[in-house]
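queue> holo job accepted (S-adenosylmethionine)
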Amino acid sequence: MSKKVFIRTFGCQMNEYDSDKMVDVLHAADGYEKTDNVDEADLVLFNTCSVREKAQEKVFSDLGRVKHLKAKGVKIGVGGCVASQEGEAIIKRAPYVDVVFGPQTLHRLPELLSKQMQTSKSQVDISFPEIEKFDHLPPARREGVSAFVSIMEGCSKYCSYCVVPYTRGEEINRPLDDVLLEVAQLAGQGVREINLLGQNVNAYRGAMGSTSEICDFATLLDYVSDIPGIERIRYTTSHPNEFTPALIEAYAKLPKLVSHLHLPAQHGSDVILAAMKRGYTSLQYKSIIRKLRAIRPDLHLSTDLIIGFPGETDADHAKTMKLIEDMQFDNSFSFIFSPRPGTPAAGLHDDTPHDVKQKRLLQVQKAINDNTHALSDAFVGKTARILVEGPSRQSQPDAPELMGRTECNRVINFAVSQQAMTRLPGQIIDIAVTQRMGFSLRGELELVEEAV
Ligand code: SAM
Ligand code: SF4
Ligand code: F3S
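queue> job finished
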């Protein structure tokens, strides 16, 4: 019987991607399969996040909860950004952990596990090896119609509040040919939607073959768009400072590029943006979006916002609220500033009481939720184009249902016949939207589709 690995993933999509890669390397080396049931696991891994203090502390309470599994021979490992930042300190605090590895050494996981078994000593490897981990990863094994492809690792921006450049290292770009090969392989496995992944994907500068030429992000999008079978292209996350005219032009040239953009703004006040070392003003952010909406009036925009950065006044906060109103964000990841050890902002004087920050956060979240619902309501009574992914959560054998996503990532559930259940996933179809249900929508298959 094959061995089983259970992975708990925290943090961003980079970590989601890395968790899939952990399963791939363990499968290739030792035949491991993934399980969602921790009680049948031979190996339990935590892929951790240290972007905020709460995320970091959660790991230690979760580790305590699986400690008892050691008695039946289960191995425990900690990877990701907390591992990268804490290293040996994790073993000191939780000596029952068998392996600690960073985002750049996850390909060494099988080797670390076998070393631990030979020596009965916990193994730690959080180095940033010269050779990229991509060179050591087995080919992707994916099911489903949508997949992530990492095009770059790390970050060299050093925003004053952020741990990522320290936990993931500086930017490393994956060569263009490797990216295109992985996308083509995924397309061959039935993937129709590609999400290009990295901390600042639009800073991409990938080597082109054996030439000294460098491929930028807009050119990469051109190449990906030409791969047969790929119908939709997404990317996350991009940075306002790297939004070149060529990238804006790509929205006019490439219909496969979705009309949805996640572009972190972080704040609406230029004073705070400067203290964050973001390198742009609120006007520059707005100007990018204005140009994009001139090309794609239907562009849905989501963002990241940090509330309560040290020194944030009521007037600064009002500028964030104004930005929300002007940009009509469809969604956001908004959190209160968390001082991270080792980052410059952790040392800044901060005299805003926590309850004031909490109130500001609630105000931001309410304004954005209201936008989300208003934008969802605008779909009702219209036709939406969706990529059908598979059975909806509510699907029953006697009442089959499928779900798909619009370009702006809204889930639409709809009833189908048994035949359509297997025929439609992977197709892009039109749906008549009938109702909003919380954050998702309900629809009806257009008659013409059902008849095909
Ligand atoms: N690279 C992306 C960018 O530049 O916008 C974002 C990557 S970061 C891992 C994800 C988000 O976490 C950031 O956009 C920011 O809003 C948030 N974040 C990072 N450090 C934070 C901190 N110290 N406190 C609160 N939120 C933080
Ligand atoms: Fe962090 Fe800034 Fe890099 Fe984004 S750009 S990962 S916020 S340092
Ligand atoms: Fe967290 Fe690391 Fe991602 S800190 S948000 S897991 S890059």
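queue> The mean pLDDT is 94.
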